[in-house]
Structures are given as structure tokens and as C-alpha cells.
Specification:
This protein folds into two domains: about 250 residues, Endonuclease, Chain A (2-Layer Sandwich); about 230 residues, Endonuclease Chain A (Endonuclease, Chain A), CATH 3.30.870. It is about 40% helix and about 20% strand. The protein has 20 helices and 21 strands. A ten-stranded mixed sheet has the order 11-18-17-16-12-13-14-19-20-21, sandwiched between helices. The protein has a nine-stranded mixed sheet with strand order 9-4-3-2-5-6-8-1-10, sandwiched between helices. A two-stranded parallel sheet has the order 7-15. Helix 4 crosses helix 10.
């Protein structure tokens, strides 16, 4: 009772909001924005796109955008993990703010677990603002009280902002599946994620800026100072010293990794990428932030999926889905099997049980496999990829094992949708998402080739039906063979089974 009273008091003590409304800064005349919009003008106002499937290139792109920004940087992320890559990016952001660049950071509140001090220190910089989306007010002091506070408000606390967006000078943006952390930039020694980001330049960046502003100015976004309190007077200076010390230490003790990450300083690529852009019409799709306030299932008018539905329904030849977490439920099952029944070639690449970082999600996916296969849907499950020895072009490798984290859809080899959206109930109903739909056969083909490479026998298991029995066809050492038992250890099997047995599907 005492603990409950303390938690309740902490929740009631949260200060009233004094948020200031702000919008993206027009920067078409900045040294970053000017050449981009000049290029766009020669392409009849289209936007330019460049795929970032490689983890190193994805890190470099973010760092170079910060280095080149002159007026504003807007960041929106679900997860930020401490690590060398994160500290390097924070160092660049602080230096940009020192130059007079306005930095706005909008983070889902799950990010702040263990990072409140760092975020408050950043927000004490006169040019940096930090807001938390759907923050917890009950018991933020410790991990235990945070957990209890979230359990006491589970109906809202399981609804999160899953968006990923990096925007510089209203002219260039990165959208896709990567969060911020070493495991997204091939800097984690144990497990790294395979992902796809999309670098967009021109009008698409302004559209993405509109989506950011809607979230930033939402009543659900609260300044870090209101949630956590003011930082100490010396907090920012302490953070600067800590970043300088840790980066210097990494340059000596982790020299190979440090040199790879920091290569953007001596060999920038942004101008080269700008000359290789694919120019095409596009549309930014995003969930309304108020989606998470819905009682039960949200109003369809608030949903990204409502905007995406016409593209899904218009497919008549081929649909390729890449989704790290795939739980179709009955609605998705009926759509996919119905499309396959009409002659559409439907192929899915997702994680195998042995590769997924969330085995419970596999428990939500597994029961649908037989029905999908019976209607001709092709299922490919990415194997857990080893590190150094993998020589495939698709960046499924690095210094450690890797797991699929990509999210992409290719429609009839003509259009592609890339963003933070997984084909599962959590993305559809509970979390908010953002992505870009591009009408470009060239970009669609490049994304399709990445997916097909991931579906190759050396990288994935193709799940097939032999009578009533599921089998997993794959290749080892150049020889094809077939498994009759699903690959994955007993602990992963147990997690998947429990998830299925207790009916977690709707929350996955």
C-alpha cells in the first residue's frame, strides 16, 4: 500500500505542460538545401531517393546530415541505446547545436529508461529541445517502479511511437526501420540487425517534416524537463567531457570499429549519393499520433494502413513483403490468400525462429503458415547469419551474427513502401508508424533484388508443405537439403509456444 501511495503521488505531482508550439524551419537556401532543391526543380518537383541497406552507410548518412545541417535537425525515434555509435552521433548533434543549428529530439518514452540524465543534459543546451512521447509519470525513479507504473496503466503504456525519422534542414531525411544503437550500425559484438533505410531529398523531406511537427506539437509529447525535472547546472559540461573521454578511449581500444564509424570525416559521401538519386513521385504515410488514445481498436481514419490499403488492393501480379515481425491475423490472412488465389505471386521474407530477437512474435506467426502455403504464398525465413564469413552482397553480415529488422513492400515491381511498419497487429493497431511510398520501377527493382537475395537458399529457409508436414529447405556448403524439424533452440520454442498458448497474438 505504501508503494502504491508513493507511485500515485508521483503521478499526481507531474507539473502542468508549458509546451511551445514550433514547426520545421524552411532551409531551402542553406548550403545543404540549395543544391537539393535546385536538382528537384530540374526533375519537375520530384523527390530523390537513395537506398541505405548497409549498416555502415546508414550510420554515415546520419552523421553527414548532421555535419551539413545549417538551420535545423529533427529526430524521431522509438529506441536509443547507449553505445559507441550513439555517442558519436550525440557528439555531432551537440557540435551542430553549438554552431546555432536548432535540434529537436522526439523520443518514445521507452527510450528514456536509463537515459533521463543524458536527455535532460542535452535539453539544457539552448539550441536543443527534447520531448518524450506518451511518457510515464508514475514512479520513474527506478526500473522496478517504472515497471509497476506501466503495469498500472497498461492500456496506454503498451501503445508506443515506433516512428524512425532523421531530418536535416527541411531538405534531406532518412526513414526506415533502424533505431539508434550499435546493433543497427554493425557496431555490436554479439548481434546486429539487417535493415533498410531510405534517404530522401527534396519535397519528401518537407512532407516528413509535416509528420514530425504533428507529433512534436501533440499533447502526448512532453518536454523532458516536465517529466524528469531540470538538469544540474553542470550536466551539459559533464556530458561533453564524458563523450570526449569515451570516444578517445574507443579510438585506442576499439580502433578498427572507431576508424570505420568515423570514416565519414575524411571521406564524406553525401555529395556522391546526391548525384546517384532516383527521382520519382512519392507520398509520405503516417499514423495520427492520437491513434494511441483510442479505446479499443482505433478509428480507421487515423491509420497508416488505411492510406496504404489502395496499393495493397491494386496489386495484380506480384507482392513482395519483408517484415521482421509478421503476424497477419485473420484480416491479413484473408488478404494474402485471396491475392494468391487470383494469381498474384505473393512472397514473404521474415525471421526464422532461430534468428528472431522476439520469439514470442514467432508464436503469433507460426499458426498461419499452413494456410498461407496451401494457397500458394511463398514463405522464406531468414537464418541466423554468421558474421565474418558471409560474403553476400545483401548486408546480412558484419562482425557478429545478424537478425532481420527490415520492413518493405514491393508492389508489382513498380512501387515500394519503406518505413517503420511491420505486418503485425502492433504496427496496425497499437504503435504509430511512418513510411514513404515511392512510385519508381527502378527503386522497386533495387528493393526487390535485396529481398530476393535474402530469400536465397544460402541465407533463408523456404518453408514448404510435404503433405501435412512443414519442412524447411535450405543450403549449406553449396548443397541443398531439407529439415523436418523447425530450427531453433528449446528456449525459443518455449517462448513461441507460450505466446501462442496464452493468446498474445493481438498484442504482438
Amino acid at each position: 500500500m505504501l508503494l502504491f501511495t508513493l507511485l500515485l503521488a508521483a503521478g499526481c505531482a507531474s507539473p502542468p505542460s508549458h509546451r511551445q508550439h514550433s514547426e520545421m524551419l524552411p532551409a531551402g537556401q542553406s548550403s545543404l538545401g540549395r543544391p537539393i532543391f535546385a536538382q528537384s526543380a530540374t526533375h519537375a518537383g520530384l523527390s530523390g531517393f537513395y537506398l541505405l541497406p548497409g549498416n555502415s552507410a546508414a550510420f554515415r548518412a546520419r552523421a553527414e546530415l548532421v555535419r551539413n545541417a545549417k538551420s535545423s535537425i529533427d529526430l524521431q525515434y522509438y529506441i536509443v541505446q547507449d553505445g559507441l555509435s550513439t555517442r558519436a552521433l550525440l557528439d555531432e548533434l551537440i557540435k551542430a547545436a553549438d554552431r546555432g543549428v536548432r535540434v529537436r529530439m522526439l523520443l518514445d518514452d521507452t527510450t528514456s529508461d536509463g537515459l533521463d540524465d543524458v536527455l535532460a543534459a542535452l535539453a539544457s543546451h539552448p539550441n536543443i529541445q527534447v520531448r518524450l512521447f506518451n511518457p510515464l509519470h508514475l514512479g520513474r525513479a527506478t526500473g522496478v517502479t517504472r515497471g509497476l507504473g506501466r503495469l498500472m496503466n497498461l492500456s496506454q503504456q503498451h501503445r508506443r511511437m515506433h516512428n524512425k525519422l532523421w531530418l536535416a534542414d527541411d531538405s534531406a531525411a532518412i526513414v526506415g526501420g533502424r533505431n539508434i544503437g550499435d546493433e543497427y550500425f554493425d557496431a555490436e559484438p554479439n548481434l546486429n540487425f539487417t535493415d533498410i533505410d531510405l534517404l530522401g531529398m527534396g519535397p519528401v523531406a518537407r512532407e516528413l517534416g509535416d509528420s514530425f511537427d504533428q507529433y512534436w506539437n501533440s499533447a502526448l509529447s512532453r518536454p523532458i524537463g516536465e517529466v524528469y525535472g531540470a538538469a544540474r547546472n553542470d550536466a551539459l559540461a559533464g556530458l561533453r567531457r564524458d563523450l570526449e573521454r569515451s570516444l578517445a578511449e574507443a579510438s585506442a581500444k576499439r580502433k578498427k570499429l572507431y576508424d570505420r564509424l568515423m570514416s565519414y570525416r575524411q571521406h564524406p559521401q553525401l555529395d556522391n549519393w546526391r548525384q546517384q538519386l532516383i527521382w520519382a513521385p512519392s507520398k509520405v504515410l503516417w499514423d495520427a499520433p492520437s491513434k494511441i488514445l483510442s479505446q479499443g481498436a482505433p478509428d480507421p481514419h487515423l491509420l497508416l494502413t488505411t492510406q496504404l490499403a489502395p496499393e495493397l488492393l491494386a496489386v495484380n501480379q506480384e507482392l513482395i513483403l519483408v517484415s521482421a515481425y509478421f503476424v497477419p491475423r485473420e484480416t491479413g490472412l484473408l488478404y494474402l490468400t485471396g491475392a494468391a488465389d487470383t494469381g498474384v505471386q505473393v512472397s514473404l521474407l521474415t525471421n526464422s525462429l532461430e534468428a528472431t530477437d522476439v520469439p514470442a512474435v514467432h508464436g503469433g506467426y507460426a499458426p498461419y503458415r499452413k494456410a498461407l502455403l496451401e494457397h500458394g504464398v511463398k514463405l522464406f525465413e531468414l537464418r541466423r547469419q554468421p558474421g565474418e564469413d558471409n560474403a553476400f552482397h545483401y548486408p546480412l553480415h558484419g562482425s557478429s551474427d545478424s537478425s532481420l529488422h527490415s520492413k518493405a513492400m514491393v508492389f508489382d515491381r513498380r512501387k515500394v513502401f519503406l518505413g517503420s511498419f511491420n505486418f503485425d497487429p502492433r504496427s496496425v493497431l497499437w504503435n504509430t508508424e511512418v513510411g514513404v511510398l515511392v512510385d519508381s520501377p527502378e527503386l522497386a527493382q533495387a528493393t526487390r533484388q535485396l529481398a530476393l537475395q535474402g530469400m536465397s537458399p544460402a541465407l533463408s529457409y523456404q518453408v514448404e508443405l510435404q503433405g501435412e508436414q512443414l519442412t524447411w529447405a535450405t543450403e549449406d556448403n553449396g548443397r541443398l537439403h531439407r529439415l523436418t524439424r523447425e530450427p531453433g533452440g528449446w528456449w525459443r520454442r518455449l517462448n513461441a509456444w507460450v505466446s501462442q498458448a496464452i493468446g498474445l497474438e493481438r498484442l504482438l
